[in-house]
Amino acid sequence: MNRKSFLKKSILGFSLIGVSKMLPSYLDKNPKIKNLIGFNHLPNPKSQVMKNAIYHAANTRGGADHGWLKANHSFSFANYYNPERMQFGALRVLNDDYIIGGAGFGTHPHDNMEIITIPLEGDLEHKDNMGNQGVIASGEVQVMSAGTGIYHSEYNHNKDKHAKLLQIWVFPNQNNVKPRYEQMKFDMSKAKNNWMQLVSPNADDDGLWIHQNAWFSLTELDQNSSLAYQVKSKTNGVYVFVIEGSAKIGDQILNERDGYGIWDISNFELKANSDKAKVLVMDVPYKDA
């Protein structure tokens, strides 16, 4: 599939799966659309729903291999549709992407979504219709408030090596805001055995800000080190994603690229089961006040 066809197909999938409550009945009435989106996920015993938590093993994510792009989707996205994995509260998309040298996403639209991009390896080249153009490197984070609508492209800046990144979408707390773009370089040494805040709702707070009552924090723990986390709001839940290594919350062991959502808690303790356990915590609205 070429990039143009991929983007057309993906954009159709994005718009449909965003209305999660309406989707199943809509698809039943529109079999052609249902066949286009596809159902490529079967129930997996490693995806476990508990009393106030859900565990997503890395190998239960949706997968896509387009040659130039290899992607893993923690939640339904494009051709991957699983009605039980539409979102975690306001967290709509968590994509783990691998892009070969020189390849990427051509110009495409977004609206009414907060988009956070975290390069893990390599450099990502960005260009948008607001006049922003530049490179986002590993150690930097980018946010876009799509608001009333933006067009942008994303490419691997390097032709001779791959890039890895997380792209995360969060539903905003207000629609049709003025689109905005920001990126910031972080001193990753500050995440050593400590929470380093990447994103918050507050423009004057540490890190970047978005239009949502959400906080993203990163840590890299030494083996057997522990770190307590305090949930920011009583209506928020927390989705924990292990970028590298292995960690544990309570009795739940989390390996590389596993996800773990928790709600109805005020705090938890994260313990590293390996050296350099790198963990991203996404503290997002989960239920009504």
What can you tell me about this protein's structure?
This protein has 3 helices and 23 strands. By secondary structure, the chain is mainly β. The strands form 4 sheets. An 8-stranded mixed β-sheet has the order 1-2-21-18-23-16-14-15, with no helix packed on it. Strand 1 (47-49) and strand 2 form a beta hairpin. Mean pLDDT is 87; it is low at 1-27 and 29-45.
SSE map:
Blueprint: H1 3-17, H2 23-29, H3 31-37, E1 47-49, E2 53-56, E3 62-65, E4 69-73, E5 91-99, E6 104-110, E7 114-121, E8 123-128, E9 133-137, E10 140-145, E11 150-156, E12 163-170, E13 180-185, E14 196-200, E15 208-209, E16 215-221, E17 226-230, E18 236-244, E19 247-249, E20 252-254, E21 259-262, E22 267-272, E23 277-285
Parallel strand pairs: 14-15
Antiparallel strand pairs: 1-2, 2-21, 3-4, 4-5, 5-12, 6-11, 7-10, 7-12, 8-9, 8-11, 10-13, 14-16, 16-23, 17-22, 18-21, 18-23, 19-20, 19-22
